Amino acid sequence: MCAKNETNFLLSKQDFKPAYLELYRSGELQQRANEAVQSLKNCLACPRDCGVDRLAGETAVCKTGRFAVVSSSFAHMGEEDCLRGWRGSGTIFFANCNLRCVFCQNYDISQLGRGTPLPPEHLAALMLNLQAAGCHNINFVTPEHVVPQIIEALPIAAAAGLRLPIVYNTSAYDSMHSLRLLDGIADIYMPDFKFWDTDRSLRYLKAKDYPEAARRALREMHRQVGPLRLDEDGIAKRGVLVRHLIMPKDAAQTGEIMRFLANELSTDTYVNLMDQYRPTAKVSSERYADINRPITALEYKQAQQVAQQSGLWRLDQRRPQTGVQHL
User: Fold this and answer.
1) Do 132 and 90 form a contact (C-beta atoms < 8 A)?
2) What is the CATH number of the domain that holds 82?
3) pLDDT mean over 255-261
4) Which runs of consecutive H residues, i.e. helices, occur in the chain?
5) Coil, helix or strand for 117?
6) I need a labelling partner for 184 at 20 to 30 A (CA). Which of 56, 190, 224, 285 fits?
7) Mean pLDDT across the chain, nearest whole number?
8) Does a structural domain hold residue 288?
């Protein structure tokens, strides 16, 4: 799929330094951390704009108060090849979420909140443990509602020797306030773009404003870090990697999303068209019968074709998933 020259997107290991290091050395990272923590008093961390005082333990949609709730942390070997490499991506899975996806495959984490609240020192220790284990990066999963807590922990981790790139692994339901705090901190943005249409976003994600929030967020992410760049070993170092989950009956309107990526970001945008959709969580109810099946091989092929027709050429090469229904 990568017919053009990938060497144009090479970032040498010798030339790479994590973005947050410069902010840490200048003292600005600690200033950002202070600002981020204070913003929890009137929380606008995501587009829900709940305005609750999380410093006082108040919660709203994301059900998360003063401290981030962590479900797990480990060297993840199931991520994209350019993230997992041969030693794994150092994933930290946060519990709870600001969306209510009816098909969420991590429902026990995102909606039931399975996890442990961790103060910043403990969150920093997780990052350092993953670095010591040899992981290629620190991969924050479902971080939209805990950006202040992440930034609070980073100066502690940097002071103790953290030097890995930061991956911000998000649904793209992010606020501009949070993304501005992350400017110069995140090395790799890995947003989903789930649905193009507002009515379908309301139906399946319970967030009618998701499409516009996602478009706004992706533009800002691309402005900050540009197209994805890899080192000599094919490991991602900086840039945007977009994930898109293909849905049955083209419920997500994949073509519209691919054209947006090509026309408003860049045809050089690195895209993972994911074929692993399966009915789960609330989809088994009659209300969501229209998406109560895996995608077909034809639907996956059509998604690839529309991406290529839009001008996108950096399509992630993934092994076939067992969720594809061959008809």
Assistant:
1) no
2) 3.20.20.70
3) 98
4) 19-26, 28-39, 81-84, 107-110, 120-132, 147-159, 176-182, 198-205, 210-225, 254-260, 297-309
5) strand
6) 56
7) 94
8) yes
CA distance 50 to 52: 6
Which of 133, 93, 92 shows the shortest CA–CA distance to 114? Answer: 93
Name the residue range of residue 228's domain: 6-315
Q: Which residues of 27-39 are buried (b: 16+ CB within 10 A; e: fewer)?
A: eebbebbeebbeb
Looking at residues 75-101, what average pLDDT do you find? 97
- Has residue 4 got a pLDDT over 80? no
Number of domains comprising the chain: 1
Beta-carbon count within 10 A of 17 CB: 13
* Distance, CA of 325 to CA of 92 (rounded, Å): 31
DSSP 227: B
DSSP symbol at 206: S
* Residue 271 in domain: yes
Tokens read off for 262: 């090509």
Dihedral sign for Cα atoms in the order 262, 231, 190, 226? negative
The structure's pTM equals: 0.95
Closest-CA residue to 272 (of 313, 303, 315, 214) = 315
Amino acid identity, position 87: R
Length of the chain: 327
Distance CA 205, CA 124 (A): 31
Contact 84, 78 (CB under 8 A): yes
DSSP secondary structure string for all residues of 139-156: EEES-TT-HHHHHHHHHH
Residues linked to residue 237 through DSSP beta bridges, in sequence order? none
